[in-house]
TrEMBL record:
<keyword id="KW-0472">Membrane</keyword>
<feature type="transmembrane region" description="Helical">
    <location>
        <begin position="20"/>
        <end position="40"/>
    </location>
</feature>
<keyword id="KW-0249">Electron transport</keyword>
<keyword id="KW-0349">Heme</keyword>
<dbReference type="InterPro" id="IPR036280">
    <property type="entry name" value="Multihaem_cyt_sf"/>
</dbReference>
<dbReference type="GO" id="GO:0046872">
    <property type="term" value="F:metal ion binding"/>
</dbReference>
<dbReference type="GO" id="GO:0020037">
    <property type="term" value="F:heme binding"/>
</dbReference>
<feature type="domain" description="Class III cytochrome C">
    <location>
        <begin position="47"/>
        <end position="98"/>
    </location>
</feature>
<keyword id="KW-0408">Iron</keyword>
<dbReference type="GO" id="GO:0009055">
    <property type="term" value="F:electron transfer activity"/>
</dbReference>
<keyword id="KW-0812">Transmembrane</keyword>
<keyword id="KW-0813">Transport</keyword>
<protein>
    <submittedName>
        <fullName>Cytochrome C</fullName>
    </submittedName>
</protein>
<dbReference type="InterPro" id="IPR053547">
    <property type="entry name" value="Multiheme_cyt_c_menaq_reduct"/>
</dbReference>
<keyword id="KW-0479">Metal-binding</keyword>
<dbReference type="InterPro" id="IPR020942">
    <property type="entry name" value="Cyt_c_III_dom"/>
</dbReference>
<keyword id="KW-1133">Transmembrane helix</keyword>
């Protein structure tokens, strides 16, 4: 009887302990934060693979190609985002190393004269004016001793594709329809607000929002 009373007193004391009572709250809070920080953001985006696996690393490091070999300005001033199958066939009319991916590309696209339905990693936001002409090696390369791959990747404009041996999936927001890699304003500010870029920061003073935004 006495032992039962003592255990009951201890149980009542434990129930009155604020720390013990708060444990479920803190556990739930930690679980919610983990879900909101890691699980939910990842599930918000769909993942779609490219039609074929393309290795930027092989073409840049092994072959010595530049970004502008495939992504360039046409004679009319428009920007060519993806090479045509005919352009790829200049080197890949037949498989060169007989890898599974290259054999599939030659068989399914070159021989059938089909265009590859490449998935776009970065769409230009609908509310932004942007031209690649002002962000090319002709401008940035005047002061910066960098390669085209470094300009695109390390400058924060594009994902670091130069070192990828496997094409990463395209992540698209299920709600907005935008790619996860679509440029954000803070990425533009990495260059456009630097004090040493006095020409860019100076020319931006006094300009209205619609100078860059629709």
């Amino acid at each position: 009887m006495e032992a039962h009373k003592q255990s009951q007193v201890k149980a009542e004391a434990g129930s009155r302990n604020p720390i013990v009572g708060a444990l479920p709250f803190f556990f739930g809070l930690a679980l919610s934060l983990a879900m909101g920080w890691w699980v939910f953001p990842d599930s918000l985006f769909s993942k779609e693979p490219q039609p074929i696996n393309f290795s930027h690393k092989v073409h840049i490091e092994n072959v010595g190609m530049e970004c502008s070999s495939c992504h360039y300005f046409r004679e009319d001033g428009s920007f060519n985002g993806f090479p045509t199958t005919q352009e790829c066939a200049e080197c890949h009319m037949e498989a060169m190393d007989w890898s599974k991916d290259e054999v599939a590309f030659v068989r399914d696209y070159v021989e059938l004269d089909r265009e590859v339905d490449w998935k776009v990693y970065q769409y230009q936001p609908d509310n932004v004016f942007f031209t690649h002409a002002a962000h090319s090696m002709d401008n940035c390369g005047m002061c910066h001793d960098i390669t085209e791959a470094e300009l695109c990747s390390y400058g924060g404009c594009h994902p670091n594709m130069a070192e990828t041996d496997k094409a990463p999936p395209v992540k698209t927001n299920r709600i907005t329809g935008y790619s996860k890699d679509t440029m954000k304003m803070w990425q533009c500010e990495k260059c456009h607000t630097l004090p040493e870029h006095y020409e860019m920061t100076g020319s931006a003073k006094g300009q209205a929002c619609f100078s860059c935004h629709k």
